Structures are given as C-alpha cells and as structure tokens.
Amino acid sequence: MNKTELQARLESLTEEIDFLRALYEAELSQMQSQISDTSVILTMDNNRSLDMDSIIAEVKAQYEDIANRSRAEAESWYQSRLQATAGRHGDDLRNTKQEISELNRHVQRLRSEVDSVKKQDARAKLEELETALQ
C-alpha cells in the first residue's frame, strides 16, 4: 500500500468511527425519548386506600434503574466495538508502518547501489580518457 492509500484508509476508518459515534448518540437519544415518553396510567379504586406517592416513586425508581442499565449496556457495547475497531486498525497501522520502513530501507539500499554504479562508471570513463590521452 502506498501513502495515499493508507491516508484514504485512515480517513475512511475515522469516518466509520464518527459514524458509529453518531449512531450510538442517536440510539441513546431514541432510548431516552422512549423512556421519557412512557407514561403510567393508574385507575383509582376508591374502595382501597392507596399510597400513590410511594407507588409512583417505586415505579419511577424501577424505570430509572432500567434506563440506567440500558444506558450502561449501550455504552459498554459501544466501547467494546470501538476498542475492537481501534485494535484492528492499530494492527493495520503498525503493519503498514513496518512495510513503509522496509521499503525505505530498500530505497536507501538501491540509492547506495546507484551511487556505487555511478562511481564505477565515472572511474571507467576516467580510465578511458587517461588511456586515450597517453
């Protein structure tokens, strides 16, 4: 892979992470709106004496607990996906850096060979000229 391909790949992976974050935020917002839109309808039975405040508080506590667990589960799932994606791309990046390093060493070696061949050619031409001048 060349540098342009790697940059394009990095950009697409960054866009994927941004997309996943936006998706997570949208899902979280949707879940919160569903929870907040939920209403409890109670019919009053006048034959019994009900402590409505404690019942409402208990139901509210249960729904808040459910919402908190759902939020924590969604966050955990998102973090695990993000870590997995980051791990994969981190490995790819390390491999690519290693490949670039190897290619740079190869280029350096080839440049040394070219310089050596140029020097040999210059020496040969110099010898030819010296021979021709004698």
UniProtKB/TrEMBL annotation:
One of its GO terms (biological process) is keratinization. GO terms for cellular component: extracellular space; keratin filament. The keyword Transmembrane does not apply. Keywords: Coiled coil, Intermediate filament. Residues 1-134 form the IF rod domain. Residues 3-30, 93-127 form a coiled coil. It comes from the Eukaryota. Pfam families: Filament (PF00038). Gene3D superfamilies: Single helix bin (1.20.5.500), Vasodilator-stimulated phosphoprotein (1.20.5.1160). GO terms for molecular function: structural constituent of skin epidermis. InterPro entries: IF_rod_dom. This is IF rod domain-containing protein. It comes from Amazona collaria (yellow-billed parrot).
